[in-house]
Amino acid sequence: MNVAHFFRRNGIARADRPAVALGRKTLWTWRELCTRAARLAGSLRGRFGLAPGDRVAIFAGNLPQYVELLVGSWWAGLAAVPINARLHPSELAWIVENAGASLLFVDPALEAAAAAVSAPELRASVTIGTPSYEALFAADPVPLAEVPADTLAWLFYTSGTTGRPKGAMITHRNLRAMTHAYFLDVDERRPDGCILHAAPMSHGSGLYILPQAAIGALQVVPESGGFDEAEIFELAAHFGEATLFVAPTMLKRLVRHARTQGLEPRGFATIVYGGAPMYLADLDAAHAVFGFHLAQIYGQGESPMTITALDRRAHADTTHPRWRERLTSAGIPQSVCEVAVHDEADRPLPPGEIGEIVVRGESVVPGYWRNPQATAETLRGGWLHTGDVGCFDADGFLYLKDRSKDLVISGGANIYPREVEDVLLQHPAVREAAVIGLPDPEWGETVVACVVAEPGIDAPTLDRFCLDRMARYKRPRRYVFLESLPKNSYGKILKRELKAQLLGPRENS
């Protein structure tokens, strides 16, 4: 079943109810949204000649048009390729070419970044909101495309430790599983609620368009197009029964805003957090402000939003003797997948033993786009090997002990050191580089570059060099200059030792 059916169903059952809003203003009812999606699908097929399975890239911040672009692509039987709006133009260009995207939709605020993008299979680039964009909705509507369950729906580019991002091939089956699991394992929702898209719609918040659409909830895009604490509180109070997906750093900012402004939060139904560690003290503060309206999910692009969950009931189960300990867990496996912990030989480990977290089930993608080697390695033995380390307790709650070996999670964004190291090593004065993450009270972790360089090089020079070649959020926030990097007998850099020694090095920042 095509996941656009969720929207078509609302176009019938909730035709005149609001579907998409920009701030307080409703833009389209469900009938209007479905009509626009069907007409857009007609243009994608007719004007651009796209065929089932072709890819449509979206390079945009949070815009209400994000919803119709996703639905219109699926309506036509195409695959969407949402791209992080914070990426460097060179990173954008690589993804567009690797995906073999036939069409690129661009946020007007990002036109400069996308101006130089060209790829062999790219037929056109359209700026969202322009007359040429609106003309696409003048086409005759087409029927909803019938697609097999394992048809590609969302090509999700997730960075990897090998440098280049990998395209996780999320199918219609995967998205349906994620949608069903949301209501079984994460949250109980009513159709009269809304979702506030405060986090990027190219990632988690965009994926959560689907479960909210499945029950006919209103999709609200803040007018700021981003995360503004005052705006989130105002919209939640205005609409009521509001849910949102946030990174822990965003939740901490909401708590801080409520306290400093003396606000009594109104209208929040559920705040789902994930993507980075959430410390117990921060959870205590969030519960004090919002009450027990929190839920946690642990997932990856390869099993979108769907590995484990700690739902509202678990957060509120204060009478349980291990309540506070469970709050530090990632919850229990979601209903549509199996989760296990394996040792280095891929043998299952008993509760209490630490190993790699592996997943299999309806939510797990069939592989990576045009990358059979990574597919075979990551999905060996029929399990998704997450690269994350953890263990189960005797009751079946999963505890994350460490993220992927090198992964840095800053403000909820995944930053893989190899990507940053590759850029640093392009500088002729840099002989060696090792990038690590160090704890940060605001962002969870901060990116630190440890560098062995020629005399005379300084942090501002390297910072400028990085900014010219990568997304701003990935660049190091601190540069530590060393005479040498600690290594083992095989020449491998010992990042754990580097972290332990970091209080003592000579640094220039």
Q: What this model shows, in words?
A:
The strands form 6 sheets. A 9-stranded mixed β-sheet has the order 2-1-10-9-11-12-13-14-15, with helices on both faces. Strands 4-3-5-6 form a 4-stranded parallel β-sheet, sandwiched between helices. It is globular and about 65 Å long. Among the domains are: 1-19 and 27-147, Rossmann fold, CATH 3.40.50; 408-501, GMP Synthetase, Chain A, domain 3, CATH 3.30.300.30. The chain has 509 residues and is an alpha/beta fold.
Write the layout of secondary structure elements.
Layout: H1 5-13, E1 18-22, E2 25-29, H2 30-46, E3 55-59, H3 65-75, E4 79-83, H4 89-99, E5 103-106, H5 111-114, E6 124-127, H6 131-134, E7 152-158, E8 166-171, H7 172-186, E9 194-196, H8 204-207, H9 209-214, E10 218-221, H10 229-239, E11 242-246, H11 248-261, E12 268-273, H12 280-290, E13 294-300, E14 303-310, H13 312-316, H14 323-327, E15 332-333, E16 337-342, E17 355-361, H15 372-378, E18 384-392, E19 398-402, E20 408-410, E21 413-415, H16 417-424, E22 430-440, E23 444-453, H17 459-467, E24 478-481, H18 495-501
Parallel strand pairs: 1-10, 3-4, 3-5, 5-6, 9-10, 9-11, 11-12, 12-13, 23-24
Antiparallel strand pairs: 1-2, 7-8, 13-14, 14-15, 16-17, 17-18, 18-19, 20-21, 22-23
Helix pairs in contact: 1-2, 2-3, 11-12
